[in-house]
Structure formats: C-alpha cells, structure tokens
Amino acid sequence: MKLRLFLPRLLFLSLLAAFVAMGTRSVALAATIDAPRVNVHKKPRHLRTTHATHHRTAYRRAVHSSATVRRASYSYHRRHHYRHRYYERFTASSYAQDQTAGDITAGEDPVVRQAAISALGDMNGTVVVIDPNNGRILAMVNHRLALSSGAEPCSTIKLSVALAALEEGIITADTPVDLGGHYHMTLTDALAHSNNLYFETVGRRLGFARVKYYANMFGLGELAGYNIPGEQLGVYPSHVLPESEGGVGRMCSFGESVSVTPLQLGALISAIANGGTLYYLQHPETPAEVANFHPMVKRELNIGPLLPAMSTGMTDVVKFGTGRTVLANFKEFPVLGKTGTCSDNGTRFGWFGSYADTPYGKLVAVFFLEGGRPTYGPKAAELAGIFYHNLEEQNYYATMAPTQPKAEESSLTTQR
C-alpha cells in the first residue's frame, strides 16, 4: 500500500525535475541567441554578471512556446547584468577665455567670423571656415590653436581611409564587410555611426603602405596653407603602429599615432565638397590681399566617382548618426560631416569637420575642441549647427559669391 502511494509521488517529482532542467537550458540558450550586441564603435565596457536560478520561473518558461521563452529570458538576462564603467580622468579644461587674443582679422569675413565666435562661446577650441571653391580661409578663430601642430584626428581619419578603400576597390558604399560573429556593416552605416571595428578591418585589408600613400595624397603630413605665418605641420608617421598597440587597424579607426591640424582637415573636406580639387589654403591678412586673392591648386584628386558614396555616409552622420546634434540648431540646408572623439594624456579632443550644401554654394567649417569630459565630437557638431544657424539669421548664404570656373584659375595653379 505504501509502495503504491510512493510511486506516483516519485514519478511526479521526476517530471518536475525534468521540467526545471529544460527551463534552465532554455534560459541559457535564449540568452546566448538574444543577448544585446555590443556597439563595437564604442570603447569596451567592463561587465560583471550575477546569476540566479528561480525554479518556478524556469518551470513556467519551459511550458511556454519557444518565442515566449526567448522574450522572457532576454528580460531575465538584462535584469541580471550590471554595467560598471571605468571613467578616464581628465586634467585639461574644456573652457577658456580670450581665445581670440592675437588673431589677425583684417582680411577675414566679419560676418563669418562673428558667427563662429558666437558659436564657439567659452569652449576651448578653434573654428576654421573655408570657401571650398578657392581655398580662402574666411575666418580662423583662435589662431594659436588652429595653427598648432594639431592633435590625434580621432574618427575624422575615417574619411581618408574610406576614400582609400573606395579607390582601391576594396569596398563600395553597399559592400557588407564581415566584422565577425555574423555581423556585417556597410560603409554608409560605418561612417554614420563611426564604427571602429569596420575601419580597423578595412585598414588591415589596405595595409599600411596604401593607407599612408592615400593619406599623404589627401594632404595629411604636409602643410595645408600657402605662406600662412605660424602654421605648424601635422604628422603622418613613416612606420606602422606596433601590433601590440593596435597596428594599422588602430591608425585607421581613430588615428592612433597620427597628428592632424584643423587646416589639414579643412583642406580635405573642401576637396570632398568641391569635387576633388585640393587647394592650398590662404589666409588674407589685409583688405588689399582679399582684393588680389588668387586660388592656388595643390593637386587634383581623382575622387569624383567616389564622392556619391562618401556624401551618403557623411549626410547620414548628421541625419541620424554621431553628428545629429547639428539638427538641434540648424535644419535649413543639408550639412555633411564627420565627428571625432578621443583623448591623450588627460586631454580629450572633439572634432567636427563639415560643409553646408546650400542652394548658393558650399561652405566648410571645422570645429576642433580640447578639454575634459564636456569636450567630444557631438559637442563640436552642436556648435557647428549654431554657427550655420547664425549665418542663416544674417542671410549670409544668399550673398555667397558664385563658383569661379577652374579654367580661369589654371594659370595660377601650382604643380604637385
């Protein structure tokens, strides 16, 4: 009699144990499938995971459909992960006074200069505004910083790498690049979201020799200006970064070991904006120099066929990517650009190189910020939006001079 009573209970307990085990395996499997993907363009964060098993919950999940199990276990997975961020200490200040002290401004456009000063405010940085059709610097706020030896370009280096990879036929705008783990990305999305892993992968395919060749061709590692007093030279190294420090991939994702000046970035973006002409940048210092201004071509870049792919990615940077902070202040005309954020020895850098594509012409603006935690690429993009808005309020775009035919400039160009 006792045996007959005991056997059903034993059978029930065995079935219950089987259901519990099934539920636990389902939870583990579902967590593996549906775990949130790490955003690979950001620096890695350290994760600490705590695990807890709840038998009743596991039992209920086991008897639901597999889709319900996956949804439930995803929530379970998220609830029991705690992220611990390790913050970098910054010693530099993001704010400054008297940034314009010593600037030589008699040859600058006063409307453009005032719009740039107002946008920069008390942030420690510089603004360089260029007419991409002739290489004239219309305004240069904070000459000391603008003409310095530059800084790590951060993710703005991706523009040079993208152009090189497109020219070499390694990628197209729509080529899905395998980033591992069944994860693929195209150039357009990689530019918009500033994906480091994408450009590390593409940079390794290019190899250091080709990466350096195109970087130099686009003006990195040489003076961007023509007879601009005080201009210093950015550096593109002659040797690849050691593999222990990230190698060529690190150089291509955020410019490790590279130094770029605001003028160099401005000259490259001007060439993208105008269709492929790399001008010497000139900074007139008097009204007479403005009246006698003549463009000087450094070299013609064969990038015209590549620009539709670049333009789409740079447009998406502002539409929904890392530079969307532009739209908080300016939506009248399209803005195409690229952000950059990185740090070195306690100083953070924030870049935004861009051009406004107006019905009256194009205008290039480079914002470069130095400082601490408040300094980063999206902040530079936000200030650029304020700058473009300031010009719109002054009805400046309608006054921009039409583009001069290049045939009239040919006698004034210089050779490579």
Short description:
The protein has 416 residues and is of the alpha+beta class. It has helices at 2-34, 55-63, 66-79, 110-120, 143-146, 157-167, 187-193, 196-206, 208-217, 247-254, 262-274, 287-291, 307-319, 377-393; strands at residues 46-49, 81-84, 125-131, 136-141, 177-178, 184-185, 277-279, 297-300, 335-344, 347-358, 361-371. It folds into two domains: 11-84; 110-412, Beta-lactamase, CATH 3.40.710.
The outline comes out as: globular
Instruction: Kindly provide the radius of gyration, computed on alpha-carbon positions and rounded to a whole number of angstroms.
Output: 27 Å
Mean pLDDT: 84
Sketch the major β-sheet: 5 strands, antiparallel
Supply the CATH architecture of the largest domain: 3-Layer(aba) Sandwich
Please give the domain count: 2
CATH class of the largest domain: Alpha Beta
